[in-house]
């Protein structure tokens, strides 16, 4: 899925959600003794919202596995996967008080979460630029689904060349 004008509302909505979360977080963090953490009321709320976003992003695979289930448009699911998955990271960082945890489990969970987000960003970038690069570098490449049509055209062209000689 290319990131184009159809993503504008998702982009704006994502920015607004992160800004609102930060605007709520900053004064709460300053007023809370020891700062906001995952165990505070705001921390639990951010953790729940971030977890919900991650669950929605993960449900895309279930949506793809059962395409006959009419659960909304695939394009909407893909955009939600991309944008809600992306903003789950700052929301979870707000949940944790910008800490990678105090124990090995929470530390490694945040490391893995960071790897997942980075790989998702890399995948989105590749999905955005690779088709254009491939068509520029290999202009005569044929998509497998179009091969029968291309073969028929090549056969007709070859027959015309033979008939002209």
Description of the structure:
- The chain has 165 residues and is an all-alpha fold.
- The chain has one domain.
- 75% of the residues lie in helices and 0% in strands.
- The chain is built from five helices and no strands.
- Helix 2 runs antiparallel to helix 3.
- The longest helix has 34 residues.
- It is elongated and about 90 Å long.
- The mean pLDDT is 89.
Fraction of helical residues: over 70%
C-alpha Rg (nearest Å): 24 Å
Please report the total strand number as a whole number.
Answer: 0
For the report, how would you describe the main beta sheet?
none
The coarse silhouette is elongated
- For the record, the count of structural domains works out to 1
Q: What oligomeric assembly is this protein in?
A: single chain
What's the average pLDDT? 89
Low-confidence stretches: none
For the termini, the CA-CA separation is: 47 Å
Order of helices and strands: HHHHH
Structural class: mainly alpha
Number of H/I helices: 5
Keywords:
0% strand, 5 helices
Produce the secondary structure layout:
Elements: H1 8-31, H2 41-65, H3 74-95, H4 104-137, H5 147-164
Short description:
The protein has 165 residues and is mainly alpha-helical. It has one domain. It contains 5 helices and no strands.
């Amino acid at each position: 899925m290319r990131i184009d004008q159809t993503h504008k509302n998702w982009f704006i909505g994502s920015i607004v959600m992160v800004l609102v979360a930060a605007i709520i977080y900053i004064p709460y963090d300053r007023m809370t003794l020891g700062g906001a953490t995952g165990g505070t009321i705001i921390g639990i709320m951010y953790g729940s919202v971030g977890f919900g976003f991650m669950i929605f992003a993960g449900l895309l695979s279930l949506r793809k596995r059962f395409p006959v289930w009419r659960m909304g448009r695939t394009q909407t699911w893909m955009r939600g996967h991309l944008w809600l998955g992306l903003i789950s990271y700052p929301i979870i960082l707000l949940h944790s008080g910008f800490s990678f945890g105090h124990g090995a489990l929470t530390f490694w969970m945040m490391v893995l979460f960071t790897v997942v987000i980075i790989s998702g960003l890399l995948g989105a970038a590749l999905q955005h630029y690779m088709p254009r690069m491939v068509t520029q570098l290999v202009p005569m490449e044929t998509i497998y689904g179009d091969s029968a049509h291309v073969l028929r055209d090549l056969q007709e062209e070859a027959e015309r060349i033979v008939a002209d000689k």
